[in-house]
Amino acid sequence: MQNKKLFVVLEQVLIISIFQYIFCNFFHFKITPSFYLIYLLILSFDGNVEISLFLSLILGLIQDILNNEILGITSIRYLLIVYFSSFFVVKSIRSKCSLIFIFSFLYFVMFSFGEINESFWDGKIILKYSILFSFYNLLIGILIESIIREIRKKWKEKIF
Amino acid sequence: MLWRFRRELIFILMLFTSYFIEKISFKRNFSNSNTKLVKENLINYEEIIQENKRLRELLELKEKKIISNFKVAEVIAIKPHIFPAEIFINKGRKDGISENNIVFTKDIFLVGRVEEVNESYSKVISIFNKKTKISVIISSTREIGIVEGGYAPFLLMKYIPYDSKVKIGDEVYTSGFSEYYYSGLKIGEVVKISKNSNSLFLNIFVKPYIYSYGFKEVIIAK
Description:
heterodimer, A: 160 residues, 6 helices, 78% helix, B: Thrombin, subunit H, 3 domains, six-stranded antiparallel barrel, 26% helix
């Protein structure tokens, strides 16, 4: 059973990574939604907090490697958001999407304000982009939620 | 008891791991970027020092009143890349450049003359260009001949009599008997003298001083 769960998570991570890669490289939006963040939030809302926390570290490192950033910085961000989101266990897509919107907003605002002094960002711009980021994440969240469900369903039907 | 706080424990453990990785990665990145920055700065400083030196030498020309009415231009393109026949400079009509202005280096080595003038850039035909024909004088014998381009890396000097006393190493200057070039501009030195039995004149090859000149800035005189 445990092995089955591991395979489910691995497949989900793989598909999410492919989506993230395609989105980052072939679609040019002003701001790129974070597929990993949405996936981690959904996992956490489903009650898989331990897996979600562990994956925050791994996916954060992958994200940093892909973006050529300092390793570990995104992991810390993911971990903080996932930890706070783990207090909410919800089942319906509507509640999950609203929470994805709120936590994406918080994620963007929290970590953009830290960089204000170093860059040209100001409050209004951060607000504008954090709303845009959260909105994109909300839309992507619906897609990811359905993908996760499909994968789970597929693995449930398999007999070892 | 501990099992109840597994979420917090995993969170703290993961957070510490991330923090630890971040610290190591930051240190490595910082030292790498520092080394890169130092290297880039050193290269930039060297370039600035060299430019400063060249500009000082140009300024000396004006201060010593060697040439009074001139403009300094930067070379933006050369064609071909070696022994250029055409040189493009970043000064044009709006900078007061006009056709047939003479172009030379800070050491008064003749480069060529302005052929085309545009609003903000100009085209110079160099002495390597086959269109070039300049009246020149040999320093030792004071004989006057014509130097022609199109024989890169050298120039061909014509119409020097068969019995001339010209020798290898003699300097060649502009004679001043020209529509465009005034006298005394250094062109090069004689490197090869060949005698043609069917001709009354010698074929003299001149190695121009701009032979190995790194084109950065040039002087345009009126």
